[in-house]
Write a structure and sequence with these properties.
265 residues, three-stranded mixed β-sheet, 3 strands, mainly alpha
């Protein structure tokens, strides 16, 4: 028994995430992996769980973006910050493309399974009640009227603070969204959802558009240093709560001065 998670659009996205359970035979995994490589995909094998690896790490990243909107950030500032960081599209643009309703459903599932760390902001339900489903409904955070794409300013009436948006530092957005992604990736490795840091790096780059020049979340963590990341996470936790509770594996590596790729996990 296994699942094959392709990414949309299938003909363009190069990742195949093979999802297995303890009952999955090695021959079944080998067959699926061989098939994936024959059709030109980069293949990673992950254990079954809510969101597998890729959707779970992305959910933490997207959830933090919606919290920043809740706090008064402007849509274009958030998107600009993360494309400057190296993602191909910003998180709010991505939410419109995927569907705000889909994002809200994923958020509920994640919140149910992972508690406070994945708690979504309350205003997302207001967006759905207003019929804002994103591009497919031609009504979301951006306009889809055939003209030049721009932020739909009327969306701010559904968010705390209304049209009064607060300037944000790009670095603050990059740190909050980036560390939410990195920490969730570490939790996936710790829990055995990921088999190795290498799979986490490949999955993030080829499935989610994580900046390739950073080498993937685990290469990037090794570059930053677990101790530095832990210190920043603790400050974010003090400011923003349980969404930034550091993964125990990160705490252990920081204390022992080890790196992810050197552990061989």
């Amino acid at each position: 028994v296994l699942g094959m998670h392709f990414f949309s659009p299938v003909h363009k996205m190069p990742l195949l995430e093979i999802v297995v359970t303890p009952e999955t035979s090695l021959s079944a995994i080998a067959t699926a992996a061989t098939f994936g490589r024959r059709i030109g995909k980069h293949v990673i094998v992950v254990r079954d769980g809510p969101g597998f690896y890729t959707s779970r790490a992305l959910a933490a990243y997207m959830n933090e973006a919606t919290w920043m909107l809740e706090e008064g950030a402007a849509v274009e500032d958030l998107d600009r910050a993360m494309t400057s960081f190296g993602f191909p599209v910003g998180p709010v643009t991505l939410l419109d493309e995927v569907g705000i309703d889909v994002g809200a459903k994923v958020a509920k599932v994640m919140h149910h399974h992972f508690g406070e760390r994945m708690a979504p902001p309350p205003s997302m339900e207001k967006l759905l009640a207003d019929g804002r489903l994103g591009r497919k409904a031609k009504k979301g955070f951006y306009t889809y009227d055939g003209g030049k794409k721009r932020v739909d300013e009327s969306v701010y009436a559904l968010l705390p603070g209304g049209t009064t948006r607060h300037p944000i530092e790009a670095r603050d957005a990059q740190e909050r969204l980036g560390f939410a992604f990195l920490n969730e990736s570490v939790l996936c490795l710790q829990e055995g959802i990921l088999r190795s840091p290498r799979d986490g790096d490949v999955g993030a780059i080829f499935g989610l558009g994580f900046p390739p020049f950073l080498g993937g979340p685990f290469r990037y963590l090794d570059h930053l240093g677990a101790r530095f990341v832990l210190e920043r996470m603790e400050k974010l936790q003090a400011r923003h709560g349980g969404r930034f509770l550091p993964a125990p594996m990160l705490v252990d590596l920081a204390r022992e001065g080890r790196t992810f790729h050197a552990t061989g996990q």
